[in-house]
């Protein structure tokens, strides 16, 4: 019993002394662009009842557009741009392209369900930011 308590005490003490080492092992790597695209395509397939060919186009679109958006973010970061509104405008631009591509492949019922799932709110927020930027 004493040995077990001493062992637990040592483990707790070591963990508190080296928190970065213990949490680094527990942390997972962020998902890749391919994984993010696949996860979103699967989510939309379940939500909207997409057909196999629609899932393929959604996944392909997301892989391309997520990568292009990431490339633009990296270019801004390398240029040491600290204005957050520039990052937001890049994200808005690519999300608008994604939505316009979705509109081509979704049926009217799927598009309405997609908008109801929160996309309409995001589109309105993008429009609002765009109008606000145009005023300046």
Provide a descriptive summary of the structure in words.
By secondary structure, the protein is mainly α. The chain is built from 6 helices and no strands. Helix 3 runs antiparallel to helix 4 (52-78) and helix 4 (52-78) packs antiparallel against helix 5 (84-105). Mean pLDDT is 85; it is low at 1-7.
Keywords:
86% helix; globular; 136 residues; mainly alpha; single chain; disordered N terminus
| Coarse structural class | mainly alpha
Question: Percentage of helical residues?
Answer: over 70%
Percentage of residues in strands:
under 5%
Mean pLDDT: 85
Poorly predicted parts: 1-7
Radius of gyration: 22 Å
* Biggest pleated-sheet summary: none
In short:
The protein has about 140 residues and is an all-alpha fold. It has helices at about 1-15, 20-25, 35-50, 50-80, 85-105, 110-135.
List the helices and strands and how they pair.
Layout: H1 2-17, H2 19-26, H3 33-48, H4 52-78, H5 84-105, H6 108-135
Helix pairs in contact: 3-4, 4-5, 5-6
């Amino acid at each position: 019993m004493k040995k077990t308590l001493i062992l637990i005490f040592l483990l707790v003490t070591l963990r508190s002394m080296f928190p970065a080492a213990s949490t680094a092992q527990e942390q997972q790597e962020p998902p890749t662009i391919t994984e993010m695209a696949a996860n979103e395509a699967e989510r939309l397939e379940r939500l909207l009842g997409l057909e196999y060919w629609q899932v393929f186009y959604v996944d392909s679109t997301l892989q391309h557009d997520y990568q292009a958006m990431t490339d633009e973010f990296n270019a801004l970061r390398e240029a040491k741009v600290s204005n957050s509104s520039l990052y937001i405008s890049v994200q808005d631009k690519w999300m608008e392209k994604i939505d316009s591509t979705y509109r081509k492949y979704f049926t009217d019922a799927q598009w309405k369900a997609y908008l109801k799932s929160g996309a309409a709110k995001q589109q309105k927020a993008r429009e609002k930011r765009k109008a606000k930027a145009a005023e300046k």
